[in-house]
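User: Can you fold this complex?
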Amino acid sequence: MTIQNITMPQLGESVTEGTIEKWLIKPGDQVKKYDALAEVQTDKVTAELPSSFTGTISELIAHEGDTIEVGKIVCTIEIEDAVVNPPTVTTHSKESSNEDQNTNTSNEKSMKTRYSPAVVRLASEHQIDLTQVEGSGASGRITRKDIQKIIETGNIPKATKQKVEQPNIATQQVIPEVKLTNHIETQPSSIGDIEIPVSGVRRAIAKNMVMSTQEIPHAWMMMEVDVTDLVSYRDSIKEDFKKKEGYNLTYFAFFVKAVSQALKEFPMMNSQWQGDKIIQKKDINLSIAVTTEDALYVPVIHHADDKSIKGIAKEVHELAIKVRSGKLKSEDMQGGTFTVNNTGSFGSVQSMGIINYPQAAILQIESIVKRPVIMNGGMFAARDMVNICLSIDHRILDGFVSGKFLARVKEILENISKDTTSIY
Amino acid sequence: MAVLSYIDAITLAMKEEMERDERVFILGEDVGRKGGVFKATNGLYEQFGEDRVIDTPLAESAIAGVGIGAAMYGLRPIAEMQFADFIMPAVNQIVSEAAKVRYRSNNDWNCPMVIRAPFGGGVHGALYHSQSVEAVFANQPGLKIVIPSTPYDAKGLLKAAIRDDDPVLFFEHKRAYRLIKGEVPDDDYTIEIGKADVKREGDDITVITYGLGVHFALQAAERIEKDGISAHILDLRTIYPLDQEAIIEAAKKTGKVLLITEDTKEGSVMSEVAAIIAEYALFDLDAPIKRLAGPDVPAMPYAPTMEKFFMISPEKVEQAMRELAAF
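Assistant: Here's the predicted assembly.
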């Protein structure tokens, strides 16, 4: 004795359910195969539901008036002989394929070094050494999620051998070997501290800074500049400029222009210490500092004195994009003769720059701020003021020439206006 | 809010639009007195009369052609093809005339027509009643192709299609007609054509599909969720022109993409979706783009076993999703 299920048949195209209008049998009735069991109505037809078996009706699962999905049980029937095909529900294929995959991942590592584009990109962005990562994907493949997890936890495996990318600041001179640290006070690191190995760009920055401060006797000087006219000039054309050229007309471009003009008049500022001689450079190549999240690059605007304010703005824009997209080439960083640093972009109003070795000086452009100023005639006025801070190599330069240079930069800046200056 | 079947939502959309705008009328085979072979136009002949619900001869080219002419003269025809399989005699009208009239006349003329057609298999309809024909039209600028998956989308998108000033092909999955039910608001709403819709949020794998495939994917997603696999499901809704932004965003979300169509694989709509992802999201991909589609054979077979072999199903979708998740 076996119980078999009678299910709702598909009674036409697009029919997915049927309503039991009337049972034609009751439990206990004997039925033959193909006997009508019930009247079924769909939204297209009314049809009789035939029995698939010969036997005794054991239970009516659906009631009259119930709407039953195609394939769902409507009643059960008890049949005499046990020779029936059991309903073959195929779920085994799924399970077996899962097992296959499980055994794959646990044993075999053939996919360990097949990296997807996403994995390669993330690993290079975060300098993750993929040979040290365990993959959770099929056959040991490292998945994007594996890498994302590593980045989230901050436990990044780095390669032990790292190519040192040197931001090639010095060009004319062999840089003497500098020890980065003379004495190390080792402090025990406690739980939660993060250890960051010093390598690559960071190492090069550290080396240059130490060398510069150890070797160059720095002296500092600052002047206040009234840039009210410059500000109103730039504000009046910046919208139009952006629309026409596609990038911003920054104040910084005006400053760079003014500095290169003043350097032409004071060539001593544009020189280098060479031990037994000082070399005055003919070209005016201005290094500008561009920072990223974790590093500092100093690309160079070559022949800045040949360029218009617009040309400088364009080059600053392009160099910044190159830095931020990692496309800066070493020739972009070579040949600088003087550095202009846009510290104002951080909101700073005063700072003491470390000279970009082996140059003679560095000029820091601070934030432009509105301040009350006493004007000629004793009147107060709200003016746009900016501090410009100069660091000099006192072996090459003295206060006299530096002061004259800085005063000249100030003079140029204070005279920039719509009437005197063209950006083209 | 009422729970309606997919086909009732379509009927309701046409009824509301015909009440709202007397320029809207229906033409097609058996759409009038019979109310359509699937009953999609049920009751509309009685409500709006024989001038606005027109029974036509068995001539699909004429159904499309008459619709185009009426549309160009300011009416808003809804032309029904009894089965999408029978649209082929009308292809010249649709592709050469409807799609191009605005361009050809330099904006002097346009063709605000909807062509509705039931498509898709899994209903033992065999080759003349089961095909997916959308890819035939999916490289004809000037046409829009909409395939809703839910009753809610069906009503909102059909109303938007009727109000659109250019021709819209509106394909309805015939197996969804009475299988899929869902809540449909009573109020007058439209859904913007050209926008895909995230039907489920997830972060392990992305499934992009349309029509019945959406429901198969949703069912499979529930099952694999028990094993900790979370699926992100994007319903294209408009398959031409494609919502590139939504496709790229969904692909980038997980980096593992499964594309599902019931149509035969080579040259299907999913081939274009795959190309978009390869073009714009390569560096976010974590696995080869995977397609689940019908085999490249001429038509849906009649034998139930062979039809089952041809058709996508929740089981096939689930297996493909699991394989991709494990990659």
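Chain B touches chain A through 29 residues (CB under 8 Å). The first strand of chain B starts at residue 2 and ends at 5.
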